Amino acid sequence: MRKVWVIAVREYSVAVRSKAFIITMVLMPILMSASLGMQILFKRLEDTKEKRYVVIDRTGGDLAKVLHTSADLFNQTVAPEPDSKRPSAARILLEVVPPGDNDPESIARQRFEQSQRVDHDAVEGILDIGAAVFKMHGDQPTTDDEAVIRFQAKKPNQRVFIAWAEQSLNAGIQAKRFASQNINPKLIALLQEPVTVKQKALTRQNADGSYVDASESTQIANFVLPAVLIGLMFMVIMIGATPAMQGIVEEKSQRIAEVLLGSVPPFQLMAGKLLGVIGVSLTMASVYLIGGYGVADRLGVTEMLSPALLGWFVLFLIMALLIFGSLFIAIGAAAGDIKDTQTLLMPVMVIACLPFFALGPIMQDPNGKIAVVCSFFPFATPMLLVARQSVPPGVPLWQMISGIALVLTTTLVCVWAAGRIFRVGILMQGKGARFTDLIKWVRRG
Amino acid sequence: MSHAVEIDAVDKTFGNVAAVRDLSLQVPANSIYGFIGPNGSGKTTTLRMIMRIFLPDSGHIHVLGEETGIAASDRVAYLPEERGLYKKMKVRDVLRFYAELKGFRGSGPAVTEWLEKLGLAGWADKKVETLSKGMSQKVQFIATVIARPELVLLDEPFSGLDPVNAEVLRDEILNLKKNGATVIFSTHDMAVAEKMCDFIFMIYKGRKVLDGTLETIQDSFGEDTLRVRLDGDDHDFSRLPGVNRVTDYGKLQELRLDRGTDSQLILTELMKRGRVRHFEQARPSLHDIFVRIAAPTVGDDHA
Q: Which residue in A94, A325, A435, B195 has the most C-beta neighbors within 10 A?
């Protein structure tokens, strides 16, 4: 076992001292914050110039007035001081055009004329309010031009304006309908006041018998934390295991492997490398975790990161490192050169990404059938279990234990297979391995 | 005498190429055994089988009295032909790593001692990638022997070394033997094999063609070689009766005689052609024996 340690120490010290490690360590947070910054930047680059819309109100002009009032309100809220401060959205400017004659020919001509203005970028769009929008249709809804509000525009993305217009006009139309029936619209609004559903985690009982209500922030935590934890896991695995994989390829191409095999049994060699991978990744994870805790502390959400959850995280991080590390090492053993590793890595990456695909349905029902079944797919086990554990009530103990056992067994098989592939693959340089070859090598050793 | 390596009726085939056929060989403990043979004749395959990196298809190999399928052993060390060291590591770290892998703890002083002995003391803290070819070869040699293995296998240890470094390496190999180790090395340098090896083994097309001390090998060919020098140039000795091959070294000609040819008759013939400055009857050199066996197929592979 001492030789496993000797190998692990070398792997670790070489990896940690490598430029790649130091650069990724520093670069990763920078890149992450940079991508956040980019999002903010793009948001700022959004077009927030004033936008002019034509309104043709065929109901007589009341709704155009409603729109004007609403537009003033909108402009005040989204862009209170247009000259001194950047508005958060485009201000809306309305141009009311009186409707022409009420025959199909004239209506079409007017729409064409206004469309031309849109084409020449004089205005952004045309809001055409049908004459019969106040009429109630009951069981026979209609989409006749008369009964709807038409919107015509050249640019596709008018989501904000359409939503605003729809809401404002409907409010106006409803007010008019209420008035026609002598109903006080304010009363209706009161009567229709909605009641919210508040999501809470389960109530717990303290040791002293008092009951603890879950804080509301856990709801966000339930959603965000698993994703963050899985992402962190994924990242440190990639960073920790890739150099080991490349190291094995180097050992093969530099003929170091023969000397190594003359000193250490292949299984111990691979086990040592795996241990090195775990060391490297844990170093990185601890740096990020401490950093993450600092950020959480600033945001005042440290209670999300309970010591128990962190414990589970580290445990399952080690599990994930074992299983993916051994897989990466096996790839290194099978590959003839660095290019080969890329080809062989593809299927592994797909496997590694499976938990991400399944995460949605699993988090909806963390202890449901899908979640349980997926958790027993060994390459997904560590990530899914830690994600499920981060959401109350957590994973049943039997699943935890059997999950760990499954991961350990799979790892042993992987390391053993990697050793055999390495031993055979070492002597077959330059020849890329096909999967059938690999299976043969594993069986024959 | 006990044997460090015993190979018994071993076959090894790769695909449909027979790399080693029906090979038996005994390497006595505490001897220096030279493996010679043209490229691709099976030297490295044999060494790797002794290392147990390859397992034989049939037959048995006992190394230091054991027969196992596990390559890893602290008692056996191997210097591969295409040698490799971790390029990014410092010389000292690499050597300590290899020493510890062979179970040699606290190798620090030994590393320093070896580096000084081979004139590499100033390079201990340099990265391997900064070394010249000859230097990295010496480092690799140290890595092989630092843990004092009982059996040392060296694949072409002298290739690429300048004469000074070759001498240093030769002394260290002889020291290994003095300290009780058994050394097997392959070489293309027949002069080295003649001078250093207690036993010489030649493999050709996977088969053993020579095995024994230099004496016994040469004896088996008899004193069939004449080295002669005559005044003047342009002598053609190939037509002389009883001479089946002439090697012209320029100033010296080497004649190989048919079995039963009387050398005195040749001398008489030579004296008719000019003044004989040098006439020597000898056993063939190892080089000559090698060429006799391998000449028909060896093209670009003269030692």
A: A325
- Quick check: pTM over 0.95? no
Q: Is residue A23 part of a domain?
A: no
Same domain membership, residue A234 and residue A180? no
A261 & A385 share domain: yes
- Averaged pLDDT, A233-239: 80
Residue in the structure block whose two tokens are 């537009």: A71
Alpha carbon distances (Å) from A6 to A276, B75, B98, B127: 10, 18, 9, 20
Residue of A nearest to B77 (CA): A262
Give the pairing of strands A211-212 and B58-63: unpaired
Token pair recorded at residue B216: 């016994």
**What is the 3-state composition of chain B as percent helix, strand, coil, each rounded to the nearest 5?**
35, 30, 40
DSSP A24-64: HHHHHHHHHHHHHHHHHHHHHHS--S-EEEEEEETT-SHHH
Domain-embedded: residue A109: yes
Asked if residue A24 is part of any domain, the answer here is no
Is residue A5 situated within a structural domain?
no
Q: What gap in Å lies between CA B64 and CA B52, rounded to an integer?
A: 12
Tokens of B86: 């971790």
Give yes or no for a contact between A87 and A71, defined as CB atoms under 8 angstroms apart. no
What CATH number has the domain bearing residue A88? 3.40.190
Q: How confident is the model at residue B109 (pLDDT cuts 50, 70, 90)?
A: very high
Q: Do A265 and B72 touch (CB under 8 A)?
A: yes
ipTM: 0.79
**Helix (H) / strand (E) containing B199:** strand B199-204
Residue-range definition of the domain harbouring residue A183: 49-189
Which of A250, A255, A261 is facing B82, going by the closest CB pair? A255
With CB atoms and an 8 Å threshold, state whether A256 touches B86. yes
